[in-house]
Structure formats: structure tokens, C-alpha cells
């Protein structure tokens, strides 16, 4: 049910964004048409309502499809997602504290599951924590480019390594919700679905 309400909210947001962007498109074409009489811009700008409606429709359809791409899919309702680069997504269920990545496994042959993490310089840095599994190691660094994982037994070993390599320490890791808000707020929230 949450997904349905979020989907309806996104449709309304896409409609509003489509209207705003169509208005900017109309104004831009009108301005160009004024400075270039007898051009395509001048002819098109004479039919303001038709131009506004068609450009709004095209933009709205484009925003709708963008919402389901890797870069625009932030999950619907109770299934939030964070794209972190290189086609890798951190998923969450019901806004619990656990984020997980399907298909990337630890030395235990278990998919990565964590409560705190951060992405810096194409590296996912986080703790290994699960409500269901018991990991052998406590922290990890996953290189998004090379797809290599480096695991650490405890916080001391982890913090020593990250300090030597000038990476964020265990104290600088963020929760899933903090990472989600950091990624999807700001300009993404206001200008995209």
C-alpha cells in the first residue's frame, strides 16, 4: 500500500515538474523566436498552448521513464534504494536499519548486509551487521571499480587501516537513512521525480 501512495505522489510530482519545465521551454522558444524572426522558433512560438502541452507531455514521459532507470530509481514506499555507482544498489526493506547489496558476498559467502556505511572515492566502506546472519568479520571495504572486498576482524584493525589510507573511520559511517537523505535530497529532490 505504501508503494501505491508513493507511486501516486511521484505521478503528481512528475506532472508538476512537467508543467514547470514546459513553461521554461515555452519562454525559451519565445525569446529565441523574437531574436530570429521567420525561424522555426518564431513559427512554433505562435501556438503557445500547443507548444506548452506537447513539451510538457514529452518531458513528463521522459521523467516517468527516468524514475525507473538505475540513476532515478529510489524505490517506492517501503523499498528504498541508493545507487552508489558502477550499477550497484544498496537496498533496504521497510526502512529498517539494515542495508544490503544483492550479489556481492563476503568471505562467509553471504551477501553484504550492513547498518552503517559510506561511499568515498569509488569505495564502499561499512560494517558487517545483520539481523539474521553472523559474520566472521566486522568491517569491510569494497572497491566499486575492481570489485574486490577487503574485510577486517574488528574495529581496531579497521580504523588502523583506514587512518593509514586516509579513509573515513568507523565513527564517520552513516546509517542507511542518513545516506538515503544525503543522496536523494537537495537538487535531486526538487528537480527530479
Return residue spans where pLDDT drops below 50 for at least 5 consecutive residues: none
Per the principal axes of the C-alpha atoms, what is the gross shape? elongated
Strand order of the largest sheet: 8-7-6-5-9
Radius of gyration: 23 Å
Count of individual beta strands:
9
Distance between the termini: 19 Å
Largest sheet: 5 strands, antiparallel
SSE-based structural type: alpha+beta
Q: How large is the count of helical segments?
A: 6
Question: What is the chain-wise order of helices and strands?
Answer: HHHEEEEEEEEHEHH
What is the beta-strand fraction? Answer: 15-25%
Mean pLDDT: 94
Helix content: 40-55%
Assembly type of the chains comes to single chain
Characterise this structure:
The chain has 193 residues and is an alpha+beta fold. 43% of the residues lie in helices and 22% in strands. The chain has a 5-stranded antiparallel sheet with strand order 8-7-6-5-9. β5 and β6 form a beta hairpin. α1 (2-35) packs across α3. The longest helix is centred in the N-terminal third of the chain and has 34 residues, at 2-35. The two termini are 19 Å apart.
Brief synopsis:
This protein has 193 residues and is an alpha+beta fold.
Salient structural properties:
193 residues; alpha+beta; five-stranded antiparallel beta sheet; 6 helices; 9 strands; 43% helix; elongated
Secondary-structure map with pairings?
Elements: H1 2-35, H2 40-45, H3 48-66, E1 81-85, E2 88-91, E3 99-105, E4 111-114, E5 116-120, E6 123-127, E7 139-143, E8 148-152, H4 155-164, E9 174-175, H5 176-184, H6 187-191
Antiparallel strand pairs: 1-2, 3-4, 5-6, 5-9, 6-7, 7-8
Amino acid at each position: 500500500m505504501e508503494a501505491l501512495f508513493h507511486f501516486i505522489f511521484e505521478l503528481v510530482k512528475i506532472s508538476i515538474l512537467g508543467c514547470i519545465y514546459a513553461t521554461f521551454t515555452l519562454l525559451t522558444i519565445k525569446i529565441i523566436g523574437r531574436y530570429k524572426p521567420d525561424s522555426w522558433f518564431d513559427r512554433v512560438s505562435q501556438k503557445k498552448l500547443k507548444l506548452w502541452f506537447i513539451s510538457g507531455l514529452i518531458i513528463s514521459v521522459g521523467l516517468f521513464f527516468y524514475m525507473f532507470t538505475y540513476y532515478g530509481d529510489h524505490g517506492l514506499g517501503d523499498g528504498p534504494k541508493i545507487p552508489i555507482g558502477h550499477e550497484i544498489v544498496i537496498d533496504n526493506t521497510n526502512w529498517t536499519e539494515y542495508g544490503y547489496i544483492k550479489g556481492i558476498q563476503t568471505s562467509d559467502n553471504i551477501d553484504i548486509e550492513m547498518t552503517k556505511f559510506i561511499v568515498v572515492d569509488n569505495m564502499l566502506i561499512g560494517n558487517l551487521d545483520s539481523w539474521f546472519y553472523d559474520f566472521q568479520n566486522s568491517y569491510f571495504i569494497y572497491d566499486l571499480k575492481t570489485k574486490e572486498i577487503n574485510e577486517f576482524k574488528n574495529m581496531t584493525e579497521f580504523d588502523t587501516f583506514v587512518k593509514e589510507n586516509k579513509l573515513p573511520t568507523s565513527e564517520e559511517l552513516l546509517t542507511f537513512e542518513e545516506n538515503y537523505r544525503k543522496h536523494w535530497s537537495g537538487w535531486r529532490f526538487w528537480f527530479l521525480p
